[in-house]
Each structure stands twice: as structure tokens, then as C-alpha cells.
Amino acid sequence: MEASMEAEESEKEAAEQEPLEGRDREPEAEEEQEESEEAADDAKKRVVPGIVYLGHIPPRFRPLHVRNLLSAYGEVGRVFFQPEDGFVRRKKKAAAASATGGKKRAKYSKDYTEGWVEFRDKRVAKRVAASLHSTPMGARRRSPFRYDLWNLKYLHRFTWSHLSEHLAFERQVRRQRLRAEVAQAKRETDFYLRSVERGKRFLAADGDATRPNGSWAFAQRPTEQELRARKAARPGGRERARLANAQDQARSNRGLLAKIFGAPPPAESMEGPLLVRDP
């Protein structure tokens, strides 16, 4: 009897302990689940992409090369390389063609001036920019970029949308500058053509536009001698001219005598009777 009673009591104690243990395990599982969710949220929040600026791009260096070289340090996202200007590209192509003598088609590859590389995690981008800056781009001995150095800089708080806006702004500025240069060239050309036409009309008015020593047709005011000659050529003009000269000479003599002898100069009214009327 005692054994049976002890067995029943042990069974009751086990039954009472089982729900307690289950209740204790449930909050622990919930806490673990919450911690895992918080860690996942923190991981999602902490993973922010970062952009590294590539200032030097050697010839024949392509986006595939930079992706292969930098993927060993972290996950690489978008890559953009800025191609060189069209004028520079045409000059290089012409130089390559002249070097070959025009006998065969010149081999010229498109080059780039600068680039941007996006990493999935900005911490990786910072680490790559700090560790690879000013180091050889090619680690192998036969690499064509062995003697070129990385020129990397991490762009703080720089996003891909900023890059798109920057490139769009540069394109707009380039178009505006091109329009201004074309308008200025057109104004200069029009002014030159108008000047040429004006010169042709001016030379044609002289009679012969081909004569280099032709006389210029222009009107000039008559001089004082020409005016006196015209007055003298009129009827009675010589007599009037002679009397006017005599009157001027007499006036000058009277003023000289008045200065010598201290006499007052003759009044203008006294000179009136000296005038002789023309016949």
C-alpha cells in the first residue's frame, strides 16, 4: 500500500512539473525568436551601399576588369565609366591612322577618363578605398595593368542618384556651351559677309572695282581759297575783293598807328565812309 501511494505521489509531482517546464521553455523560445528578428533587422539596416570613385583608368581598362579585381574584396554592384570626349577620341583615331600611313585600318580602342564603383556594403567600400589606394592594379607579373596604381576615394553620403544628376547636369552644360559657340561663330561669319558685301558695293560705286589705285568718290567742303576764287569769278567780284583787301590793310595800319602814337583806335563807324559801293 505504501509503495502504491508513493508511486501515485511521484506521478502527481511529475505531472505538476511538466507544465511548469513547458511554460518556462515557451518564453525562452519567444526571446530567442525576437533576438533573431532584431539581429536580422539590424543586419538589414546596417547594409548600406557605398560608392568608390576611380580617378585613374589606364588604356584598355574596362568595367569587367574592375569588377573582377574588386569582387575579391566584397560584392560589387553597379559600375559606370565615363568615356573620353568625342573630340579627343577623333584626334587619337586620326593620329593612329596617320601612324600607319593609311595603308590599313588603324586599331584604336575606346578609353575612359573616370569611373564609379558601387559596393553592397559601405564598410567594404571604405576598407577597399583605404587599403588599395596607391597600390598596383595588377598583382600578376604578366598583367597589362601592373605598373598602374589604384586611385580610389570613398564618396561619403554619395548615392547613385547623385551620380545620375551630376552626369545629366554635365550633359546640359556641354550642350549649352556648344550652342553658344555655334551662335558666336554664326555672328562672326555674318559680320564678315556683310563687310565683304559693303566693300564690294563701295568699290563698284567708283566705277572699277579691280583698280587698286582708283580715286575715292566723296564730297569735301570747299576751302577758304576756293570760296574767294568763286566770289572773284562773279560779275564785279574782283573789285569787291580788291576793296576788301584795301579795307583790311587800312584797318591794320590804323591800329598800328594808334598803338605807336597813343591815339584811340578808330571806331568802326568811322570806317563806314571808306566803303565804296559797287557800280
Structure description:
The chain is elongated, with a radius of gyration of 53 Å. Helices cover 57% and strands 9% of the residues. It contains 7 helices and 4 strands. It is α+β, with helices and mostly antiparallel strands and 279 residues long. α6 crosses α7. The chain has a 4-stranded antiparallel β-sheet with strand order 2-3-1-4, with helices on one face. The C terminus is likely disordered. Belongs to the ESF2/ABP1 family. This is Activator of basal transcription 1. Keywords: Coiled coil, DNA-binding, Nucleus, RNA-binding, Transcription, Transcription regulation. It is found in: Nucleus, Nucleolus. InterPro entries: ABT1/Esf2 (IPR039119), ABT1/ESF2_RRM (IPR034353), Nucleotide-bd_a/b_plait_sf (IPR012677), RBD_domain_sf (IPR035979).
Kindly list the characteristics that best describe this protein.
279 residues, alpha+beta, 4-stranded antiparallel sheet, 57% helix, 9% strand, disordered C terminus, transcription regulation
Write the layout of secondary structure elements.
Layout: H1 2-46, E1 50-54, H2 63-70, E2 76-83, H3 86-100, E3 112-119, H4 122-132, E4 152-155, H5 160-205, H6 224-233, H7 237-261
What is the string of helix and strand elements? HEHEHEHEHHH
Spatial extent as radius of gyration: 53 Å
* Main sheet characteristics: 4 strands, antiparallel
SS-derived structural category: alpha+beta
* Beta-strand fraction estimate: 5-15%
Strand arrangement, major sheet = 2-3-1-4
The total of helices stands at 7
Give the rounded overall mean pLDDT: 75
How many β-strands, per DSSP?
Answer: 4
Helical content class: 55-70%
**Oligomeric organization of the protein chains:** single chain
Shape: elongated
Q: Cα distance, first to last residue? A: 188 Å
Which stretches are low in confidence, meaning pLDDT under 50 for 5 or more residues running? 18-25, 268-279
GO molecular function: DNA binding; RNA binding
Biased composition (Basic and acidic residues): 12-26
Protein name: Activator of basal transcription 1
GO cellular component, one term: nucleolus
